[in-house]
Amino acid sequence: MTFDELKSTLIGMGMPPEQLNPDALRDEAGLDSLFAAELALVLRQEKGIRIPEEEILSAATLADVAAAVRQRAGAER
Fold first, then answer.
1. Contact 62, 24 (CB under 8 A)
2. What are 44-64's pLDDT values in tens digits?
3. Are the beta carbons of 68 and 39 closer than 8 angstroms?
4. Which CATH number fits the domain that encloses residue 52?
5. Which of 20, 45, 52, 71 lies 20 to 30 Å from 61, alpha-carbon distance?
C-alpha cells in the first residue's frame, strides 16, 4: 500500500488530512490503539489485507504503517 492509499483510507475513516504526512509519528497523527483496531478492520473488509493491530502499533511513522501494510498485502498474494 502506498502512503497516498493509506492517507486516503485514514481520511475516509475521519482522520484530519493536515495531520497525515509520511514522517508523522503514528501517535502524533492520532493513530492510537483504538484507531489501529479500526484500521485493521477496514483494511481486512475493504482491501482484503489482514494485518494485526499490534503490527500497526509497532510502526513509528505513518510511512512505516504503509510499508507494513504493503508487506502484508504482498505476503497474501
1. yes
2. 999 999 999 999 999 999 999
3. no
4. 1.10.1200.10
5. 45
* Single-letter residue type at 54: E
Q: What is the pTM of this model?
A: 0.92
CB 14 within 8 A of CB 45: no
Q: Which residue carries 490503539 as its cell?
A: 33
Task: Give the integer Cα–Cα distance in Å for 57 and 16.
Answer: 19
Q: Give dist(CA 34, CA 65) in Å, integer.
A: 15
Range of the domain at 52: 3-75
55 in Cβ contact with 68 (< 8 Å): yes
| pLDDT < 50 positions in the chain | none
Structurally, the chain folds into a number of domains equal to 1
